[in-house]
Amino acid sequence: MTDSEATIDALLSEGRVFEPSEAFRRQALWSDPSIYERAASDPEAFWAREAGRLSWFEPWGDVLRWDPPWVKWFLGGKLNVAHNCLDRHVEAGGGDKVAFHWEGEPGDRRSLTYRELLEEVCRLANGMKSLGVRKGDRVAIYLGMIPELPVAMLACARLGAPHSVVFGGFSAEALRDRINDAEAKVLITADGGYRRGQEVPLKRNADEALRGCPSIEHVVTVRRTGGDHPFVEGRDVWYADLVGDQPAECPAEPMDSEDMLYILYTSGTTGKPKGIVHTTGGYLTGCSTTHRAIFDIHDDDVYWCAADIGWVTGHSYIVYGPLANHTTGIIYEGAPDWPDKDRLWSIAERYGATILYTAPTAIRSFMRWGEEYPQKHDLSSLRLLGSVGEPINPEAWVWYWKHIGGERCPVVDTWWQTETGHILITPLPGITRLKPGSATRPFPGIEAEVYDEQGRPVPPGGGGYLVLKRPWPGQFRTIYKDPERYVETYFSRYGKETYLAGDGAKRDEDGYFWLLGRIDDVMNVAGHRISTYEVESALVDNERVAEAAVVARSDERVGQAIVAFVTLKSGQTGDRVVAGELREHVAKVIGKIARPHGIIFTDDLPKTRSGKIMRRLLRDVAEGRALGDVTTLANEEIVEQIRGMSTEASSQE
Ligand code: WT7
């Protein structure tokens, strides 16, 4: 047993350490465990009570219509998400509260109150109207973490124009595919963004993307980094010029509860990203309820979700949930180690952050950098910590609890997905006894189970497939323009009433859930979803490559690392230079996050007689394990070759 394992073991054996403290429990919004039984006995009534906390222009009729696998929530109800996030707080006298403290990577700062945010949103909404944006039109947003990003999302929500936010780290090609799938009419971007002292060339990427985007009529560009940028006459407009003269009032479009709020693309098992569709009433109910209860949001909290708004975590837990709850949040533009490795802690100290929500990959980096960085700062304002995006190893959990939370903050490990819209499996910090590494229990009103291949519940201790057995309000409604794929991907294995999450899981004797990672060809790299197929397509797109197979290898830093087995066309030799070129090629096609960590050149890939690549063997090679059964191989000789290369997988970082 290593020292850290011994520490964790010791901590775990004193179970009381992870019981909610009396002090926390006393002030917690939810501290009565009977909430689970109450919600389970009538989930619709539970969610309806929560939906009643929002402001509706017209009341709903039925709470739920479930025509498996299709669901609708709060039927006939009318509301507007921007109105719920902004106007109603200002009307109630809360306009002077800070909505966001924002800090740019170079050190510039800006705080926006709810009133200021509302006015800015209205101005942009009016500006977008002047460009012809109407209810139902799709708007693409390609921005870094600057205040204009939530402003743009809320302006879209105000007009009823679904947004499609594309992560600023994605390439021109990835942006183009997403714009075209959504047939977006307007793109909102910036000249650039800052990341680790470098400029991210957003507008240049956008211009490259737009050479193949016939649906785009206008491009709105925020000035962030400065410099000259070619503008296309009649298409391009600076953000400042567009909003400058616009009135700071703009009516919020009454939206049906089931109208689309946004599309967000995520990786599936094929090369084509899935446009996950979220709607209005149920989504906002789910986000605001879970945010309030799980992060125990009080009026004086300073809440920091240190994710990027380009992913669903930012949509639900930087923008929509927190603003619906009138929370003060923090947004930081850049890298956590810029200019030094204490950047996050200096920000947390400056604004007196009380809640921090981040990903295990980040926590493992903090761990590697050492506790001297958080120790330089006063983090005593923190009272609650959260984790999301991938399974958190107990060692990282305990380090987070100890060195960031000062042994006083509960850690909520929250499981959910782009598809689920909001957190579904999680502790409630004033109720749940925590076990490091476990997301614990389904949120009240949620019914989860672990199934075997036949759809039978797996007894405690055994692994199986995570499923959800009844609808929840924030779940996605379909895949944009591809309802068949929605049914096929999520509701075919166990029938139309059972949602297949795509994750492996097991339950323990206490009924706690332990998430085991993806069971499909989706990798989770630093908390980001990337499909093996996407990376393979990007590789074979390179002229040197004949064939490629991509697998994930477990990695201490990023959870899963990408390993590519590549066969080159004849006459090509695989060396370090070519490996570097291929990595850059993948970055260009998808984005830097998808660059393979290791590339292994091989004369052939192990295949079955029917020509199927045996990924299982490749995974064994990538993990440095003994090779499994090779008897079904058509080309056994290749096994010898790749076996000889097994060390290269880990050395070629
Ligand atoms: C996949 C969803 C949810 C927002 C960020 C990722 C993995 C997420 C956890 C967790 C273990 C987790 C799952 C899931 N995942 N949270 N707390 N413990 N695994 O959203 O990109 O849609 O990815 O992330 O594998 O399926 P996403």
What proportion of the residues form beta strands (DSSP E)?
15-25%
Quick one: how many beta strands?
30
Instruction: Please count the helical segments.
Output: 22
- Bound ligand species: 5'-O-[(S)-butoxy(hydroxy)phosphoryl]adenosine
User: Please, what is the average pLDDT?
Assistant: 94
Cross-sheet strand order for the largest sheet: 12-11-8-6-7-14-15-23
Parts with pLDDT < 50 across at least 5 consecutive residues = 647-653
Share of helix, binned:
25-40%
Global structural class? alpha/beta
In whole angstroms, the N-to-C terminal distance is 28 Å
Largest sheet: 8 strands, mixed
Reported CATH architecture of the domain at 116-275: 3-Layer(aba) Sandwich
In short:
The chain is of the alpha/beta class and 653 residues long. It contains 22 helices and 30 strands.
Structure notes:
- The chain has 653 residues and is α/β, with parallel strands linked by helices.
- Among the domains are: 116-275, Rossmann fold (3-Layer(aba) Sandwich), CATH 3.40.50.980; 520-651, ANL, C-terminal domain (GMP Synthetase, Chain A, domain 3).
- 33% of the residues lie in helices and 22% in strands.
- The chain contains 22 helices and 30 strands.
- Helix 11 crosses helix 12 and helix 14 packs across helix 16.
- The longest helix has 17 residues, at 114-130.
- The structure holds 5'-O-[(S)-butoxy(hydroxy)phosphoryl]adenosine (WT7).
- The site of 5'-O-[(S)-butoxy(hydroxy)phosphoryl]adenosine has 23 residues, from helix 12, strand 20, strand 24 and strand 25.
